[in-house]
Input
Amino acid sequence: MSDLRELYQEVIFDHGKRPRNFGKLEGYSHSAQGFNPLCGDKITLYLKLDDGVIADAKFEGAGCAISTASASLLTEVLKGKSEADAQRLFGAFHDLVTGDRPSGEGLGKLEVLGGVREFPARVKCATLAWHTLAAALKKQTDAISTE
Ligand code: ZN
Output
């Protein structure tokens, strides 16, 4: 278990330091801004939907390693997912980090963020990108806040 935990920390550290899909997405169809005042994390998420499928996703922003890693992993897993798939993943991810369904089964690499459930203050860092995703899909124009 401790090996697994180390691996998870490595993945979070890696994505936090070198986020994937970082930058503005040209020709995006959906976008939203999210803010976690508790930690100071801010992200802007861009999505390009094509026929109800997320063809591309990128993000910009500044935040702690957990929020950055979560947004980076999110943009990686979103590509090729339908809106309904994305909503389902959000539910499963939320259950994972709040401990309602700690197995993380079926979440793939998102599972690495499961450890935040032991640090309630960091749960909002991990879910910020996901709340922002939900706002973007709803075409919500006001910035969302986790508070
Ligand atoms: Zn944070």
Observations:
- The chain has a mean pLDDT of 92.
- The radius of gyration is 14 Å.
- Residues 50 and 94 are 26 Å apart (CA to CA).
- The helical segments are 2-17, 65-78, 83-98, 120-137.
